[in-house]
Design a protein that fits this description.
Number of helices: 3
CATH topology: Alpha-D-Glucose-1,6-Bisphosphate, Chain A, domain 4
CATH superfamily: START domain
CATH architecture: 2-Layer Sandwich
Shape: globular
Pfam family, one: AHSA1
Family: Belongs to the AHA1 family.
InterPro entries: ASHA1/2-like_C, START-like_dom_sf
Protein name: SRPBCC domain-containing protein
Structural class: alpha+beta
Number of strands: 7
Order of helices and strands: EHHEEEEEEH
Helix content: 25-40%
Strand content: 35-45%
Domain Activator of Hsp90 ATPase homologue 1/2-like C-terminal: 15-135
């Protein structure tokens, strides 16, 4: 983690094995379902790109793009998201720790401002809530 900036880490235990959680993040059709996204393209490899259109409550559509920095199957995914007005993508680190039929997931990010961090942390909690529901229904 960076020693400057505002960061957060969210850790949860999911009722699904690590390979199921990994697939939820790396298989476009599956990601689209739980992340409320359309037009999902995931090229999951270091240097690969991703894109999607997030459909937020109320029906607004937000196009998102980014790339993958680090990919360790079923363990770690470091993704960058392109943010208008920023030279460098915002990185998000996703760590998975297998525990039999359960998986501990940690999401972490660092931002320049507390406001950006708080907004991203809220969004990540929303994503993890949706992921938890999706895995429970599978």
């Amino acid at each position: 983690m960076s020693t400057t900036g505002f960061d957060y880490t969210i850790t949860r235990t999911l009722d699904a094995p690590a390979d199921r959680v990994w697939a939820a993040w790396t298989v476009a059709d599956e990601y689209a379902v739980w992340a409320s996204a359309e037009e999902v393209v995931l090229d999951v490899r270091p240097g690969g790109a991703w894109s999607s259109v997030m459909v937020i409550p109320g029906g607004a559509r937000v196009p998102l793009t980014g790339g993958y920095v680090e990919v360790v199957e079923n363990k770690r995914l470091v993704m960058g998201m392109n943010v208008p007005g920023r030279d460098e993508p915002v990185l998000m680190t996703l760590d998975l720790t297998a525990d039999g039929e359960r998986t501990q997931i940690s999401l972490s990010q660092t931002f320049d401002t507390a406001e950006d961090r708080d907004q991203a942390e809220q969004g990540s909690n929303f994503l993890l809530d949706s992921l938890t529901t999706h895995l429970a229904a599978a």
